[in-house]
């Protein structure tokens, strides 16, 4: 069935308001950034609830509404089962590692590696990790580019370039504070609009009962090849490693004030994935009935949205999809820039660099990183598209990097040689296995995992010399002791006031956007629900204002 997916004039007005809102946030928080610590981790003063929202928004992108929606279209609720792999990854990872990462006191996720292993391991992890993050984010930017080309007249190249420029500029201006505030606003917009589409799509197919009656085979949690136990087990393990070696995830532990806040941040992130995954993917499950002749399953979510949502409301949906990827890329750009500034520039070229100098380098490195990702994203199509490129890059690099990085913070015995051999040999094994067509993905991943674990813990590398042993013992002694309450940073009243003002303005503008776009569509379910979403956003703004005033009085 041929469908013309095209935004209308009212949609562009909604997108314009959203862009102005994001620009105002970026410019407003640029003046907060006085040093590199504030730029990269907010000086450890990011409230844990806001860090949770930033973490949640940073761990997925439009890729979810493309790749996972494709699974939902073809196989149904198993897409939710697959995406729920994020829940144990976040909860177990934060409870096990969150407090330890916060106690390191680091600015970058791999800063501790020099003390844990050696300078060589730190540098290898830096360069290989930067390469992986560049490749991964090229895929993300490519995905939003494809999404934009479907609903606008823009070519893929221009869609990627414009998106890349917007993301890069926002990050240069405001660093982690801009990422945090924008993610909070984008979270509100994303949740509200997806909650609008869910009931609209369900009504179209006769509700949940209609789905069970018409496509019962898709309404099981383990349908299709991705519902097989072995496949799911490997995928869950893979996600556990991938998320906990993710620099963006680790950085969020540095942003909050103490270990307790770090653990709460990770647990709440997992809960958000648990609750909102069905909300995100059930419309894609229903899409197999709404648009049954769709040629490309990965466009199921956007196809349902543009078919069922009226003009203006669809513009908000487009903005929310862009926002999801923007939050993810913002967080990634920030952490890559932090690694380059601290682990490359300061460590190798200017150890005595002043904070202002580091801040300049941070912003220039963000610009370079953004440019590289933007240019590289244009060529992702040559790898077979977003899914194939992501599968290839993850299969080769994730496990070899993740094991020394994640297990190094809990295991004392493996030394620098073990880490270097695990990384180098693991990457080679990954390349070879992914090049063999007769080896399926789950078996290749299992073999690579076993090889890397054996190499990392193999007792043939000799003992650490006394100097290294003392250094490692000091690190683990520090990791076992809670942060001194006197050294726990606190957020200033000036920051709190600015946060509240921007949040209130954002909620009011978001509410006004939903209400304004609903007025021409009040006779439709989408318009009525959009009106409710707008009113809810305004009520939330009022509630926050009351709570803030009561807190000030105390």
Report a brief summary of the structure:
The chain has about 550 residues and is mainly α. It has helices spanning about 10-30, 35-40, 50-60, 60-75, 80-85, 85-105, 115, 120-150, 155-205, 205-215, 230-245, 245-255, 260-290, 300-310, 315-350, 355-375, 385-405, 415-435, 440-455, 465-480, 495-520, 525-554.
The counted number of beta strands is 0
Characterize the largest beta sheet: strand count, sense, and whether it forms a barrel: none
Low-confidence stretches: 31-44
Shape: globular
**CATH topology type of the domain at 9-375:** Sodium/glucose cotransporter
Radius of gyration: 23 Å
| Overall helicity | over 70%
* H/E element order: HHHHHHHHHHHHHHHHHHHHHH
For this entry, give a set of tags.
22 helices; mainly alpha; Sodium/glucose cotransporter; 554 residues; single chain
Describe the structure.
The chain has a domain at 9-375: Sodium/glucose cotransporter, CATH 1.20.1730. 77% of the residues lie in helices and 0% in strands. It contains 22 helices and no strands. The protein has helices spanning 9-30, 36-41, 48-58, 62-75, 78-83, 86-104, 113-116, 119-151, 156-204, 207-214, 229-244, 247-255, 259-290, 300-308, 313-349, 355-377, 386-407, 416-435, 441-457, 466-479, 493-518, 525-553. Mean pLDDT is 81; it is low at 31-44.
List the helices and strands and how they pair.
Elements (H helix, E strand, L loop, with lengths): L8 H22 L5 H6 L6 H11 L3 H14 L2 H6 L2 H19 L8 H4 L2 H33 L4 H49 L2 H8 L14 H16 L2 H9 L3 H32 L9 H9 L4 H37 L5 H23 L8 H22 L8 H20 L5 H17 L8 H14 L13 H26 L6 H29 L1
Helix pairs in contact: 1-9, 1-15, 1-21, 3-9, 3-12, 3-13, 3-15, 4-13, 6-11, 6-12, 6-13, 8-9, 8-15, 8-16, 8-17, 8-18, 9-10, 9-13, 9-15, 9-16, 9-21, 9-22, 11-17, 11-19, 12-13, 13-14, 15-16, 17-18, 17-19, 18-19, 21-22
